[in-house]
Specification:
Layout (H helix, E strand, L loop, with lengths): L4 H24 L14 E5 L5 E7 L3 E3 L4 E4 L11 E5 L1 E2 L27 E6 L2 E7 L17 E2 L6 E4 L73 H38 L6 H19 L4
Protein name: Mid2 domain-containing protein
Keywords: Membrane, Signal, Transmembrane, Transmembrane helix
Length: 303
């Protein structure tokens, strides 16, 4: 007996549901990682102006700096001084965080030397413009180079070479992002992914204050309440959205399967009721003997 077309529909719906779940699982994968090798689902890759991957990952829409830091613009104010921009250590495309892959080499661990699983805010030392320190080193309002255990030096020629999540495509006819040069008037190196200098405790430096034009870059909902925070955590929204999408797909698939199953049962129920069950052999014999007995009583003879 050939199966009906209706009976094959639940199987097709189930296959479609499995395909949707596989697709959503693929979307959840990330090409960026934090120092503890956990996926950085809120980060996006950085490309230089030639379209080459640099290894650095920042929050989508944030600025990629040539010293392997990330920068988030607050408002539309240009420049790099004051509270209009937040620097932070982002992610990397290499899960092992090898320096050869262009990964940042600063602010990788907390006070217990445990690898961190998120971005870390980085602060610049006042008066020592080429000295930086990690936001986790000092809690509360005492954030300054005088209260931190370790400061580190990065390149003084601070410049922006790209925007996270935007890959330049020369063939499309649109020019790649062209951030303003640093304060020395030089053009940023297209492949600049300079590594930090050796960590030291010296807080003195005579480097000039770098400036970067930020008005041409889009903003990103990188949460900031106006005060300096020790750590930026943006690893919640995307997993929640993915979980809601997967749950919705499973619910819809279950509802469709239940609908086809109930409709199939209702169609088969009348057919079973209209077809009486066959008599067993002993029932046929009992019925024949009963008819013969009635005939003898009525006519005095058997059939």
């Amino acid at each position: 007996m050939r199966p009906s077309r209706d009976s094959s529909r639940p199987a097709r719906v189930l296959n479609l549901s499995l395909f949707l779940l596989g697709f959503l699982s693929g979307v959840a994968r990330s090409d960026c990682y934090f120092p503890d090798s956990s996926p950085a689902t809120t980060e996006a890759e950085c490309w230089d102006s030639s379209g080459a991957r640099t290894g650095l990952c920042c929050a989508a829409g944030d600025l990629c700096l040539n010293n392997t830091m990330c920068a988030h613009q607050i408002g539309t104010t240009t420049g790099i001084s004051g509270n209009n921009i937040t620097h932070y250590r982002g992610g990397c495309t290499d899960s092992t965080w090898s320096p050869l892959a262009g990964c940042p080499e600063f602010c990788l661990s907390d006070d217990s030397h445990k690898k961190t699983g998120g971005p870390i805010t980085v602060y610049q030392c006042p008066g020592g413009l080429n000295r930086w320190y990690c936001g986790l080193d000092v809690p509360g309002p005492l954030k300054s180079c005088a209260h931190v255990r370790i400061t580190f030096g990065l390149t003084g020629d601070l410049s922006v070479y790209g925007v996270a999540g935007i890959s330049p495509s020369p063939s499309s006819g649109q020019p790649p992002p062209s951030p303003s040069p640093s304060n020395n008037g030089s053009t940023p190196d297209q492949n600049a992914t300079s590594t930090p200098t050796a960590i030291s405790t010296d807080t003195s430096s005579s480097a000039a204050s770098p400036t970067v034009s930020l008005d041409t870059f889009p903003q990103n909902p990188f949460e900031n309440n106006g005060s300096e925070s020790s750590q930026v955590d943006t690893s919640v929204g995307v997993p929640i959205a993915i979980g809601i999408a997967m749950g919705t797909a499973i619910f819809v698939a279950a509802a469709v399967l239940g609908f086809f199953y109930i409709r199939k049962r209702r169609r088969e129920a009348p057919a079973r009721a209209e077809t009486p069950p066959p008599y067993e052999e002993h029932e046929l014999q009992d019925r024949r003997y009963s008819d013969q007995y009635v005939m003898r009583l009525l006519y005095g003879k058997s059939d």
